[in-house]
Specification:
mainly beta, 3-stranded antiparallel beta sheet, 2 helices, 11 strands, about 15% helix, about 40% strand
Length: about 160
């Protein structure tokens, strides 16, 4: 793991403060993933308050732990897509149906209007949109528990 070509810390207001190798400071930088679904740990830009890229990070895995922690904390506070970890129940195998799920943000339920609201992505990932337009993600349906996979396969 190489040293990062920048320093990152939180200022008195809790915003990220980036200092480049040449000493230029950028207050209020925001991490933006290039590929949030397909490769969430690859390709990340730190942009300034005006939306201009200040630095590019090829891989979060290459960063020293303290920098990675700051960026992960900031991303977690900004990203709102719940990750489905388990499907508890489905009201019916036709649509519309009510799904009870456990996500990385807690238990919830939603209405699936139709099978077309489940989009297949890369390598087993799914993008599910509920009747209110809220989007959920299944990072890899192959790692879900057996019951969740069985329920899900009825809709795929």
């Amino acid at each position: 793991m190489n040293a990062a070509p920048f320093q990152l810390e939180r200022d008195a207001h809790g915003q990220l403060l980036l200092t480049t190798a040449d000493g230029v400071r950028h207050a209020g930088v925001v991490p933006v993933r290039a590929f949030p679904i397909a490769a969430p740990n690859e390709g990340l830009s730190l942009v300034d308050a005006d939306g201009r890229e200040v630095t590019w990070i090829e891989s979060l895995d290459d960063l020293p732990a303290p920098l990675r922690t700051l960026i992960d904390e900031e991303l977690l506070s900004r990203e709102l897509t719940p990750v489905i970890r388990r499907i508890v129940s489905v009201s019916t195998f036709s649509t519309p149906s009510i799904w009870q799920v456990e996500t990385d943000r807690g238990s919830t339920h939603f209405v699936l209007k139709g099978e077309e609201d489940i989009r297949r992505l890369h390598e087993g990932a799914l993008w599910i949109t509920d009747s209110h337009g809220i989007q959920f993600i299944v990072r890899d349906r192959r790692v879900l528990d057996r019951r969740s996979r069985r329920l899900l396969e009825r809709f795929l």
